[in-house]
Every structure is written in C-alpha cells, then in structure tokens.
Amino acid sequence: MADMAIEAKAPSYNEENIRLQKQAQAPRSLASSSPAASETSDPQQFEFTGTGGEYFRIWIVNVLLTIATLGIYSAWAKARRLQYFYRNTRVAGAIFDYRGNPKAILKGRILALGLLASYKLTFDFYKPAAIGIALILIVIMPWLLARAFRFKMANSTYRGVRFHFRGTVAQAYKMLILFPVLFAVTGLLIWSLVTSFANRQSIALILTAVILPMIVIFTAIPLAHYLLKRYQHDNAYFGHMPFFFDAPKREFFKTYGKAIGYMIVGSMAVGIFAAVTGKLYTLAMETSFAWLFEILYGLLTAYLGYLFVMAYLEGTIQNLVWNHTTIAGMRFESAVQTKQLLAIHASNLALITLTLGFYKPFAAVKRMKYRIESVTLVPLADDLETILADQANDHAGAIGQEAGDLFDIDIAI
Amino acid sequence: MIDAIYFDGLSTRRNPVTLIIHKRVIVMRGEGIRRNARLSQVNISERLEHAPRILRFADGATVEIADRRFEKMLRANRYRESTVVKWQQNWPFSLLALITLVVVLIGAYQWGLPWAADEIAQHLPPSLEQKLGDESLVQLDKHLMQPSNLSVEAQARLKNSFARMKQPHGDKTHYRLEFRSSKIGRDGRALLGPNALALPNGVIVMTDELVTLAGDDHAVLGVLSHELGHVRHHHSTRRLLQGMGVGVVINFLIGDVSSALATIPTFLLDQSYSRDFERESDQYAIDMMRKNGLPLSPMAELFAMMGDERERRDDRVKPRRSTKSKKTRAASMDYLSSHPSDEERIATLRAADGKR
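Output (structure tokens, whole complex):
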C-alpha cells in the first residue's frame, strides 16, 4: 500500500543525524532552499523509538512508588510515562516533548478521586446523595474535559513550540452535552430493564422500554464521538497555526454501523461455536476443573467478537480522524489496518493474562508503536521546513501563560 | 564538542549548533547563535535510551541533543541524574522493584488490607452499619425471604435459649434475632434454603428451613453462635471494605486492559477473605458453645446434612446443565466457594467436642 512506499523514503534516525551534521557545516539557513529541501518536501512518517524493555522498567518503578506513596506518586508517574511516549515519537527529524507539571496533575487526580470516591461511598450507603453527586459530575464534566484538553495541549511541544487548545467551556457544553444525555439514557435503560423484569410486566412494555433507549444510544454514540473529535481537533493550534478538522459526520455513523453489524455477525459465530462445542462444554463441566473451563470458555466466546470490534473501531476512527485533519500547508495520512491491530490486541491480551498483568508495558509500547508509525505527515505544496519556519511563530505563548494557570488541572481521559 | 539542534522557542526553525560544557557552563555556537548558560539554570530532561535529551531554557528556547557523548559531558560536570531515573535505567534494580511489588501486594492482601478494614470497621459510626444492615434486610425481604412459618412458641424458645447463653471472652455484643422462611424460586427450589445470615446492623436472620433440617436446638444455637461471631467481628462491613480495597488495586493494575478480566481475580481474592471469616466465626461458635457446656456435634451433623442436601440438589439439576441457566452455573461454582469445605468444618467442630 501507499504507506509502504513512504516507509522506505522516511529518513531513519541515523541518516537524519548525518544529514544534520552536513547542514551544520553548510553556512546556510535551513529555512532557505538547502540541500535538505528536496527531502523535507517528501511525506514524513511518524516514528516511535521506544522499546518494551525500557518502558517496563519505567512502569514497574512507577507502579511500586505509586503504591508505596498511596497513589500520590501517580502524578509523577503520569508525567514520566507521557515524557517517555512523547520524546520517543519523532517526525521530520525532531521529537515531541511533554512538560506537564506533576503537581497540577496531582491536583486534578485528587479532585477526580474525591468526586468518584464520594459517589461510590454514597452509592453504597445512601442512594439519594449518590444521585446528586452523579448529577454534579455530569454537569461539570464538559468543563473538566475542556480544562484537561487545554492542559494537555499547552504542555505538549514540538521543536520548542507549544501546542494550544482554545476550545471554550461554552463550546464544551454545546458539543459534549451529548455525553450526559448518553449517561442519562443508559441509566434509564438499566433502570427500565431492572424494574420491568422485577415486576414481570408485559413483553410489549419491556420491548419499548428497552428498544427505544437502545436506538437513542446507538445514534448518540457516533454523534458524540464525532463532536468530541471535532471539538478536540478543530480547536487545536501548533504555535499560531490552527488545525482544521473536516471529517464528515456520516463516516462516523458508517463506522459504528459496521461495528454493530460485525457485533451481530460475531455473536452469531459465537452462537454456532457454542452449539458445536456444547457437548464438550457439558463434558468439561463434569470434571473438577469446571470452574476454570467455565471462565476460559466465557472469555473466549465473549472476547472473540469484542476484540475484533474494538480493534476495528480504534483503527478506523484513528484513520478517519487523522486523514481529515490538516494544519496550514500539511495534512496527515493514517493507515492503521484492523487486521494488524487485532493481532496486536489479541497477543497483548493473551500475554497480559499469562503474566498476571506484568506484560502491560510491553503491550502498550507494541500498540502505540503500531498506531504512531501508521501516521504520515504530508507537506502539501512547499517543503516542510519552509512551512514550519514561516508560520509557526509563537510570540505570545513561548513561556505559556496557559500552563501556569491557577485552575490548571488534568484529569485522566 | 558535540552537535545539537537549537530551537529559539519562537519559531520551529532548526538551528544546528555545536555544544560543549565547560566548568558547568553550557556553551553553544551556531549560525548567528552564541549562547552560554549555567548548567544549574537549565532544565535537563531525564535520560532515555532511544530518545534525545532536551535542554529547556527559562526563556522557552530548547536544545535537542541526540549525541550520546553528551552523557559523558554531564558526568564530567557533576550533573546528577535523579535516583528514580537511575533506578529506571538499571535492569537489576527494576527487577528488584518487581519482586518488591509482588511481595508488597501479597503482604497487603494477607495482612495490610484485613488490618486496615478491621480498624476502619471498628471506628465507623454505628449509625452507618445500622443503615447498611437495614438496607440489606429490606432487600432480602423483598427478593429472597418471606415471613416465618415457625410457631411463636418455637421462636420464643430459641430466642430465650440463645439469650441465656453467655458470650465468650466476656463479650456483650448486641444482636437481634429474626426468623424468616425462604422464598421459592420459579423453578420450585428455595432461593435461600437452610441458611443463617448476619447483617452489619447486628441482625441475625435464621431460616425456617435450617431450624427444620437441624431438628436439634443445640445445632441451631451453634449456628447462631457462629453468626454472632460474624456480628462481633464486623465481618460484613470488613468484607465490604476489603472487597473495595481489592477492587481498587486490581483495577489499577489491569482495569485499563479489560474490566471484565479484572473481575476474575477480584472475585477469587474476595472469596478467600470470606473463607477466613467463616473459620474465625466457627472458632467463635466453638468458644461460645464450650463456655456454656453445650455439645458441638449436633452442629457438625447439621453441616453434614446441609452438604448432603446440596449434593442431592446438584444431582437433580445436573442433566439440565447444558441449558446454562444462572442457577446451575452458581451450583457448579462450589469450588470457588465463599465457605471452607464441609469436611474441614465438621472435623474442626468434632475435634473441639472431643477436647471437652
């Protein structure tokens, strides 16, 4: 495919260095047409240089210190983790950098934990208060998301220039109000399921109570996802260069529609599989390892379909989003293949289960490497150096007022 | 002298520079760039194996350094990497961290969490446990139990006999005894069967089925002592807290991979806690019965009968297993039981009787 050709052309780490040394010797500015110009006008593939072994060591120390400090270190752990993934991501001969202040991250985590813990505790002990807290959570969620996006972008840099997120809180409410609606409808669905079965009402009533919210949810999810991505990408800036997002809404509906289709086909396949292996199942249930078999059987049948649909959604949405994102004079190409992502997910899940979770850092690197390296930066007319040097002046925010904000928080998303 | 790339923080222009550190001062020279800065005034990103270092200046300028000789320069100028980073870069140290983590997790599960849950349970306001218990009783009455069919006399007799018993270790635990009978499910089987429950608010529920099956008051009193042990040691509240603790840790470790996968270890670990509580309560029952000079064999026989009853029930449902109804699935999960095996419990009780 197209990305193979790009891969061959993309300069490797070492070639890049040699080239830079040559440039250093040449007494000419890089922005003018240097010998490198012909190279930087080619598409640039994103590259991920991290390894599972190195990330494992970072991860294990993070986990241990997080547990030893009863979670306080988790903010520093997050900063180190993001540093690792950002700095190992390179494109056009330069790397990304993450500068988030762990103290701001800690503040956000305490807030989020406080909210969730009070919800969970009151849910166990006093239901009305839990409903109140859930409502508060839903109401402030768009505000929190806007703050978190802003924090994340303001602390991301490339070539010494910061990214920015300028989405307003008002927009967040407008664009993300679908999420609360979604939660409400899901709650309604569960509630209607529980009550209708508890009171053994007529089938017709159950069907309307279940199917109506289902339809609402299935139309709301793609729309909500579309709006979230539009909110994120359309309000992002690199220095002063705005990103533009022009993915059509219907593509999101199409992707999710296909996912539901796969889910139905998958459950049919699982049904056939269960019917064929039914005899084996009954036999195995007679042995003393019945419980083990039951768990494995359940996992197998449940995950076969689930994994595929998840890989499909993850890959297709990434392609959809990045293939429709542009920034002055540049666009992105993303070519994630569901088949490959599925293979990565399946092997990751198997190895994580076998190692009781300790394969997790290797799995994360494997997945991110594939996803990052599927993306290519394509200069449209000019060569990359000219585009970047000419337009990315960032007079206002080099030191970044936004990052030092008093209400600076970061929540996990 | 090494090559580096200088970014002024205002544009993304790459400025190739040469860099050297001399007497803890960074000196950079390039096309139109002459910059010196003290090592102590520059933020240096942590070392990574495959990624360049980034120097961050206070005015927003940055330098990317891919050349590995930079490490030597830093060392020569007494730059000290943080302990955490040194730890992360060292395989033996990080494997030590892995072993420590496993030991800490096992220790926390075995001793830490039970200790913490015990402390919290003892210092919780009684009103909270009251509320918890009241709520569970309402739920139980709604879904699993109905009013007792035992005669008022029989109820009073059991209540009085148990009230007259002295609690062990000088305890004066408050409790309230309630009689209920089990609701019958749609498949014609009792939902609760012969059973007794202890709730956080000190309510002990005894089913008619258990009283009938026991036939002997001594067996019923033994079971009541066992349930009083649960109340005395706040087992329901502790189990709730310990379950939360296990859930939080497991979710932190693998929850982001798959929440469905995370429920399996959570469930298994919770069941093991439950078995510990049952053993503790069995011991409490032994102490209480012996203090009052009552025999434990009737309780042992009751457990044996309950075991037989379960087996009969399982045999009956076995042919229907392939239909995979929820009830039969629960029956097949006895291996992951919340209680120790009948054999173990019966042997303990009989042994205690023998020692008398």
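Chain A has 15 helices and eleven strands.
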